[in-house]
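agent> fetching stored inputs for the thymidine-5'-diphosphate docking request
agent> found them:
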Amino acid sequence: MTRGRFISFEGIDGAGKSTQHAWLVDYLRAQGKTVVASREPGGTPLGEKLRALLLAEPMHLETEALLMFAARREHVAQVIEPALARGDWVVCDRFVDASFAYQAGGRGLAWEKLQALADWTLAGLQPDLTLIFDAPVAVAQERLRAATANPDRFEQEQAAFFERVRNAYLRIADENPARVRLIDARQTPAVINKVLENIVATF
Ligand code: TYD
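agent> prediction call returned; pasting tokens
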């Protein structure tokens, strides 16, 4: 049995990644692939409970990082590893890069602390392909304002926070050229659909 493929979607809030995530899941299924669509934080019953806490409850930044990784550990064990072992495609709205971008970049937790958590809990698991949706913070914030009636704890952050998150994502893209593709999220959804089609046809 060939191991499945693992794709993650990343980007600052408002970049439009969730729309494209849903589109790619439908596209791959239409191509006859068996796709497990998931998201982080979340993806399991326990992970979704942790998500509800993470998005609503004020907490210390290390608590936030630990809960993100707790939810992820469960997600990997219950969903991602079994799916990849079956040969399915896993298409996940956010994965470990989000912890580096938000908890290290955005909140200022030491990169090395997150690396230690990743080394401990993921045993080297990384997506085969990561799509980072990049847009200027002002563009993403405008989209967020138009689309979100009740912003969560992260969405309520100031522009400077998202600038730091964006810069961390750009650093991740720079340091992982074989895994990461940076997508200009200012393009129209139809143009981005084509970009994704081309990327998944060749990765
Ligand atoms: P998001 O995908 O933006 O959910 P939605 O589109 O439904 O609002 O994810 C929720 C938030 O969680 C997002 O603001 C980023 C944050 N997050 C982290 O801070 N660290 C992480 O490791 C993950 C997975 C998400």
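agent> quick read of the result: The radius of gyration is 16 Å.
agent> awaiting further instructions
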